[in-house]
Amino acid sequence: MKISYRWLQQFINTDKTPEELSLILTNIGLEVESIDTVQTIPGGLAGLVIGYVKECAPHPNADRLKVTKVDVGLAEDIQIVCGANNVAVGQKVVVATVNTTIYPTVGEPFKISKSKIRGEVSEGMICAEDEIGLGHDHAGIIELDVDARIGSLASAYFNLEDDSVFEIGLTPNRADAASHLGVARDLAAYLKLQLTMPDISGFLVQSQELNIPVELVDMEACRRYSSLSISGVTITDSPEWLKEKLNAIGIRPINNVVDVTNFVLHELGQPLHAFDADAISGNKVIVKKCSEGTIFYTLDDAERKLSADDLMICNANEPMCIAGVFGGQSSGVKPSTSKIFLESAWFDAVSVRKTSKRHGLKTDASFRFERGTDPEITVIALKRAALLIQELAGGHISSEISDIYPSPAKPFDVNISFRNVTRLIGKEIATEEIHSTLSGLGIKIVSQDKEGMKLEVPAYKVDVTREVDIIEEVLRIHGYDHIEIPNQIRASLNYAQKPDKEVLQNQIADLLTANGFYEILCNSLTKISYSSQPDLAVKILNPLSSDLDVMRQNLLFSGLEAIVHNQNRRKPDLKLYEFGKVYSLENENYKENQRLSVFITGAKQAENWNSRSIDADFYNLKSAVDLIINRLNIKGLVSAETINPDLSSGISYSKGEKVLVDFGIVSKKSLKKLDITSDVFYADFDWDLIVRSVRNNKISYTEVSKFPAVRRDLSMLLNKDVTFEQLKQIAQKTDKSLLKEVNVFDVYIGDKLPEGKKSYALSFLIQDEEKTLTDKQIEALMQKLILNFEKQAGAEIRK
Predict the structure, then answer these.
(1) Do residues 287 and 217 make contact, with C-beta atoms less than 8 angstroms apart?
(2) Rounded to whole angstroms, what are the CA distances from 206 to 83, 277, 399, 763?
(3) Would you say the C-alpha torsion 88, 91, 93, 99 has a positive or negative sign?
(4) Reduced to 3 DSSP states, what percent helix, strand and coil does the chain have, rounded to the nearest 5?
(5) Taking the complete model, does pTM exceed 0.85, yes or no?
(6) Which of 120, 199, 298, 573 is least surrounded by Cβ atoms within 10 Å, i.e. has the fewest?
(7) Per-residue pLDDT tens for 749-786?
(8) What Rg do the C-alpha atoms of the chain give, in angstroms?
(9) CA dist., res. 685 & res. 688, Å (int)
(10) Average pLDDT over the chain, rounded to an integer
(11) Strands 124-126 and 339-347, how do they pair?
């Protein structure tokens, strides 16, 4: 966003240099990215001085040239050969001295050098208007007033002043500063200056001859619509002062009426639109949405098909303008226009943003409406523009102001505590300074006592709705650099609960990275079509697009988008993980939960000269999940078949009634949403629950046993529905003291077994911590295991 230094000075009376203001603006939250010098005319008449022609004689070798002696304020007069017909003794003229670069109205700049012209030395140039960019006249040299001071700068004589233009990196939350008025307001609050508003006291309705009624149909997309009519205008070029102001901030002048609307937009931050009143069929303006697919031609001669969600400014028969975004081809101001209908409205930010994005139209008006304009300034801007149009284009105001405002915007009521101001800022700010800062920013102080203040925040400060926002306003105007760093260092014991969440997360991140996984960081905003429970989704009030309209409810689709992105770039073999938050709406309360997701897809082993490519499978994912669980030393988990709707099959690990992790193969339905054809294996950890589980772990230490462990194996025939987890629990209940490990090392399912059966081979590690086991003890334990397997699992022991 470009802000003119000279334009700012119309709002605040300050002698601060552009460089000084640049530092102030950056310190108060309006970061100045660059400062450019803008000259009224190219070159700014640098090096040109006022001279006095003391002698003028015909050139001895050229009939059309003259040799002059000119006093330019130096110790000696200079000789200049001049070809102008009107040069004469006694004139005050503009002289370009040697080494001066001049910028003609037409053509390239060139440098003046000492030279000989037809044998006579010439040490400069006496200039015409077009030769120095002051106009197009080339009839002769410029003749100045007799009181022009010899040797003075031509730039001073013509009152040329360079302007400095700040390029401000405006953040989306600072809609209130998207104008010269908004920036000046912040500076006035910081510098403790009075803000000078444009004078609109001369506004007067002069007739009622052009009343154009307005019908506001869509009161959600248009919250306020102000308008008036002006008759008898003459469309011409704008005066130089207006062109200079617009050119300085990169706006191309068009004509006096359109330029006024652009001027007021950048001055006050309120977009305006001028219609040719003769193009308003039926003498009526209707603010509504049109039918899906309606054809509309915009000012850029493009044909656009309207959406049923696009708010339009229409006449009785057809649309004339895309509200808040872009004007129409047939209703704009033309050279023949003599009557105009002037609009100043407050459009809904979400509606404008979606329309702007839908049609790929980014304008100065949409930029401001998208971020939120001041609903209370529409009439002020209308009067300001009407007075300027009268001044520059003539005419008279031919209607009363129509102001349709069905639901007036209410200020935000905020209470602040002086104690909280001091606590959050880290420094006690004087009550008087808080008072002056808030008043300077336009925040009304309703009441005040020794404890705090009750405030009314104007609607244009869309980002200031809470106490902490008010405190931030006070802090940025006071200055972050003015908060002293204390000399005394205080330390205290850390009583934070263990484990440290960041340390734990880093440990698992390091573990996964060491095992070939890559960490991804994904956007928390996503599309609602990914949601399996859209009613519980946290919706964005002012979404950037339909693809970013809700907060994500799980990490699955963020990871799948990353997988698609890589697969489309010939990276099909992926092992990814992400720590991130998910969001939901439960019983009208917003909840967020930290999760860990793990993804595996493609090949687990790439093809090389001595082995084939091997695809990843479920057990690669299970290995990664078990690795994390073992690293966290979480015991007593119960496994069961997952009921996660995004998984076609898989397992869940639970502790009590809480599920710590679901993992398995992603369902085809979920993969289809992103057109993924390969299998994706996905684990979803409830990281908050895991942290609580780790916190409850008690670390105990035991000596390594001096006595040997014994392994025994059993092979058994089972029904297919019996799981290893069931067998493991049966074994652990049989003997908790001697049985150390239970593992499955072979599984067979095939036509050599009866229908509905499978074969498991289990291994058992048996050890006594206090003595060496005898064969009799081992055999007794194995017999107990066999008996329990047969009774509780229906196992048939294979000999």
Answers:
(1) yes
(2) 55, 17, 8, 102
(3) positive
(4) 30, 30, 40
(5) no
(6) 199
(7) 988 888 889 999 999 999 998 899 899 999 999 999 99
(8) 40
(9) 9
(10) 91
(11) unpaired
